[in-house]
Amino acid sequence: MRDALPRWSLGELVPAAELLVSELVCNALRHGASPLRLTLERVPDLRCSVSDGSSKPPRPAAAGPEDEGGRGLALVDMLAARWGCERGLPAGKTVWFELHAEADTPVPGARECPDRENVPERDGGVPDGLGTSKGDWKSEAA
């Protein structure tokens, strides 16, 4: 990520992308199943996707002030311009987020969660059935 984003003229997104990717990868390792895949796409700014073999969707936790965990999806929700979860076929899922280089803050209400049955709509999320991104660039790490 530290190599790809500056090549795509998105170097300013590295800190936020690293934080959010670490949250999604930790969730996949803790709650998901193998195989695990990280995908970075230039669409037109940045989409990061973490796929795993579990079809269980992510569930936001209600973390208390003394809890050590349970804030990962809240961070994704706060910092990403959009994020969502897609079922994999025949199994698994992909949790993704997008960051925009021009905007200082995310667009309110722009979050998406296409899998209506399994992931609750939150705070004005916009489920729209988005299936795949149409990026010109793609980089994967397994």
Structure, described:
The protein contains three helices and five strands. It is of the alpha+beta class and 142 residues long. The chain has a five-stranded antiparallel β-sheet with strand order 3-4-2-1-5, covered by helices on one side. β3 (82-87) and β4 form a beta hairpin. The chain starts with a helix and ends with a strand.
Secondary structure topology:
Layout: H1 4-7, H2 14-31, E1 37-42, E2 46-52, H3 72-79, E3 82-87, E4 93-99, E5 137-141
Antiparallel strand pairs: 1-2, 1-5, 2-4, 3-4
Helix pairs in contact: 2-3
Domain Histidine kinase/HSP90-like ATPase: 16-97
Biased composition (Basic and acidic residues): 112-125
Keywords: Kinase, Serine/threonine-protein kinase, Transferase
Quick structural gist:
This protein has 142 residues and is α+β, with helices and mostly antiparallel strands. The chain is built from three helices and five strands, in the order H-H-E-E-H-E-E-E. Strand 3 and strand 4 (93-99) form a beta hairpin.
Question: Looking across the biggest beta sheet, what order are the strands in?
Answer: 3-4-2-1-5
Tell me the distance between the termini.
13 Å
Category by helix and strand content: alpha+beta
How many domains in all? 1
**Rg for CA atoms:** 14 Å
CATH class, named: Alpha Beta
Strand content: 15-25%
DSSP strand count: 5
The outline comes out as globular
* Share in helix: 10-25%
CATH architectural grouping: 2-Layer Sandwich
Pfam families: HATPase_c_2
InterPro entries: Anti-sigma-factor_SerPK, HATPase_C_sf, HATPase_dom
GO molecular function: protein serine/threonine kinase activity
Keywords: Kinase, Serine/threonine-protein kinase, Transferase
